[in-house]
Design brief:
The structure holds two protein chains of two kinds.
Chain A: H1 3-12, H2 15-53, E1 57-61, E2 72-73, H3 76-82, E3 86-98, E4 104-110, H4 114-118, E5 122-125, E6 134-137, H5 139-145, E7 152-155, E8 158-166, H6 171-174, E9 176-180, H7 181-187, E10 193-194, E11 196-201, H8 207-221, E12 223-227, H9 228-235, H10 239-273, H11 275-283, H12 288-323, H13 325-328, H14 337-363, H15 367-372
Parallel strand pairs in A: 4-9, 6-8
Antiparallel strand pairs in A: 1-11, 1-12, 2-10, 3-4, 3-11, 5-8, 6-9, 7-8
Chain B: E1 6-17, E2 22-33, E3 37-41, H1 48-55, E4 63-68, E5 71-72, H2 76-85, E6 87-90, H3 102-107, H4 118-128, H5 144-156, E7 162-166, H6 174-191, E8 194-198, H7 202-205, E9 210-215, E10 218-224
Parallel strand pairs in B: 3-8, 3-9, 6-7, 7-8
Antiparallel strand pairs in B: 1-2, 1-4, 4-5, 9-10
Helix pairs in contact in B: 4-5, 5-6
The chains are: A alpha+beta, B alpha/beta.
Chain lengths: 374, 230
């Protein structure tokens, strides 16, 4: 009879309670993993969305993180194009609006640059014609609005004909409507304004040269030039996203603490029930270290299985959420190893504390008192 | 008998409960020699079990000290080590774990030990107490006498120098009680370990070399019994 075998045998004396405790910890860890994947998914969605829509570098105003609040003069395009090393310039205007039914719609106005429109993938229909009140919808927003090709929808007090459905792959872009830049500028009363410029640098520039071009643009035009990951980083600094991430972290911590309390309650109950037994173990020559080790092994056994189960629950829940259109169509939801680090970093020490306290309680009593315990 | 070395000494032991309202032991002095058998007798509540608990380190005295081979024993760690190496205890209620077999209950006393022939030691003690055939049964499948023999095997598997038995036959019918008592004295004589039995059973007490009577927490009588010297 080894200590580990004895610990296992003790846990199997109450298999239902042991299993429920493991499940409780697994759910807590799973919740934490899923919430953290959610928080990161929002950030990832931004990065993936921008990468899908823009080719190389994005030019944005300084000190603005809200994309709908970004304003740059349309005349800036010529200045950008004049800088040596810049091969192509296109612009976009972003507006958030709502339909008469109250559905929120993100609209992107795309400049007439053929290279820019070439990046808009088509699932069905065609691209809007410049100057006409025509619009393409992402498949998710089309589904939300119940709109199909040929329908007319009213946005920004104007009526637009749906002429195509885009074939974007990222959750962010599948919810975006696209129309010609000029049409959106007029409809949104933002004439001669754009939100961002996308620029493509000359092929064959070395990294040092690319850095020099970026620096030159920033110095000459008082703007920020970012690659797609940098822009996602900036946008993730948005207060709403920061709050959402903070909430998901806070709830994750609460979930993990609840899991550890679950373990603590189970082990305390188990130690309480086995007080006489622990007294007997002391009577037959067990020292405090052996008793503490026994209870710690029981706690670790539950904790490790709970954490492992939690990882599986978290990955399973994230996959499940991704397959639910109401969630998966809005944000990317793929758990990564990094999502497991925080919950496990909290859970493992908490499980150790959760097991250590009952263990300490078990050996804080005189064996004779323990043997008298009813 | 008198030239045998001192094994356990209790000096001026006092113990009270309920914040001093219940005085269980008052100034008890008792010396136990190696290989000796002693019966502690007295009415219920006289302090016999309390004395056994203090003598085995399961409880602490309010006053007085316990000596093992002339050295004072203090602290949980020291007592645990002593119980592990030199003291065995059996109780009236057996205290066997219901989900472990008889063999596994005996093996519990050896948890943490390594590098020795644990299975062989367990087999030998189970054979000595006559439980080889029933070793793999759960306590619920054993009679009271068999359970007490498992408890006895668990207490003796580490070959202690002193065995404390607190009402070892108290929960057994007369046939089983006689069998367990006989087994215990046989093992005592074979191993030359000292034996201290707390009992109400005078016939059991008379088999010991000494009978110590406790009345109201004090030793009122300490006389030779009919038992043979180990």
């Amino acid at each position: 009879m080894t200590l580990t075998k004895f610990a296992y045998s003790n846990l199997m004396r109450r298999p239902a309670r042991t299993l429920l405790t493991i499940l409780g910890i697994a759910l807590a860890i799973g919740t934490a993993v899923a919430l953290l994947a959610l928080g990161r998914g929002i950030y990832d969605s931004l990065g993936e969305g921008f990468t899908e829509r823009s080719s190389e570098l994005l030019v944005t105003p300084r000190n603005v993180v809200d994309i709908t609040a970004m304003r740059l003069p349309e005349t800036l395009g010529a200045g950008l194009a004049a800088i040596e090393g810049v091969a192509d310039v296109s612009s976009e205007l972003y507006v958030f609006t709502s339909t008469l039914e109250g559905d929120h719609v993100a609209v992107a106005g795309v400049s007439d640059s053929p290279s820019k429109w070439a990046t808009v993938p088509i699932a069905s229909g065609r691209r809007p014609v410049a100057g006409r009140a025509e619009i393409m919808l992402g498949d998710v927003i089309a589904q939300t609005l119940g709109a199909k090709i040929g329908d007319r929808i009213e946005l920004l007090d104007e009526e637009f004909e749906v002429v195509g459905i885009t074939a974007y792959g990222t959750a962010l872009n599948r919810g975006v409507a696209v129309m010609p830049l000029k049409v959106l500028q007029e409809a949104s009363l933002r004439l001669n304004q754009v939100s961002t410029y996308s620029i493509r640098l000359d092929a064959g520039l070395s990294q040092v040269q690319q850095r020099d071009v970026r620096k030159q643009i920033e110095q000459q035009l008082s703007v920020v030039v970012s690659d797609m990951q940098e822009i996602a980083d900036r946008l993730s600094g948005d207060r709403n996203i920061t709050i959402l991430k903070a909430i998901s972290r806070a709830i994750s911590i609460v979930a993990v603490v609840m899991g550890a309390l679950n373990l603590l309650a189970t082990l305390l109950l188990s130690v309480q029930e086995r007080t006489r037994e622990i007294g007997m173990l002391c009577a037959i020559g067990w020292n405090d270290g052996l008793v503490v080790s026994l209870i710690m092994i029981e706690g670790l056994f539950i904790g490790v299985l709970g954490c492992a189960g939690g990882v599986l629950v978290g990955i399973g829940a994230s996959s499940l959420f991704s397959s639910i259109p109401a969630i998966g169509d809005i944000i990317s939801f793929t758990p990564r190893l990094s999502d497991l680090v925080l919950p496990l970093a909290f859970a493992v020490p908490l499980c150790i504390v959760g097991a250590a306290y009952p263990a300490w309680r078990a050996v804080s009593m005189l064996p004779a008192e323990a043997l008298r315990h009813v | 008998m008198t030239d045998r070395q001192a094994l356990l000494g209790l000096e001026n032991i006092s113990r009270s409960f309920d914040r001093g309202r219940i005085r269980a032991l008052s100034g008890v002095n008792l010396a136990l020699r190696m290989g000796e058998s002693v019966a502690l007798v007295g009415r219920s509540g006289s302090g016999k079990s309390c004395l056994l608990n203090i003598a085995s380190g399961l409880d602490r005295p309010d006053e007085g000290r316990v000596l093992w081979k002339g050295l004072e024993v203090t602290g949980r760690r020291r007592w645990a080590a002593l119980r592990h190496s030199s003291i065995g205890i059996v109780f009236q209620e057996f205290h066997l774990l219901p989900t472990l077999t008889g063999r596994q209950n005996v093996e519990l006393a050896l948890v943490g030990e390594s590098g020795e022939d644990i299975r062989g030691r367990v087999d030998r003690i189970l054979e000595q107490v006559g439980l080889t055939e029933m070793a793999d049964r759960l306590p619920g499948e054993l009679s009271g006498g068999e359970r007490q023999r498992v408890a006895l095997a668990r207490a003796l598997v580490r070959e202690p120098e002193l065995l404390f038995a607190d009402e070892p036959t108290g929960n057994l019918d007369s046939v089983n009680a006689d069998a367990v008592a006989s087994l215990m004295f046989d093992l005592h004589r074979q191993s030359r370990m000292a034996l201290v039995i707390v009992t109400h059973d005078l016939s059991l007490a008379r088999q010991c070399e000494r009978i110590v009577t406790i009345v109201d927490g004090r030793i009122s009588d300490d006389r030779p019994g009919g038992g043979r010297t180990a």
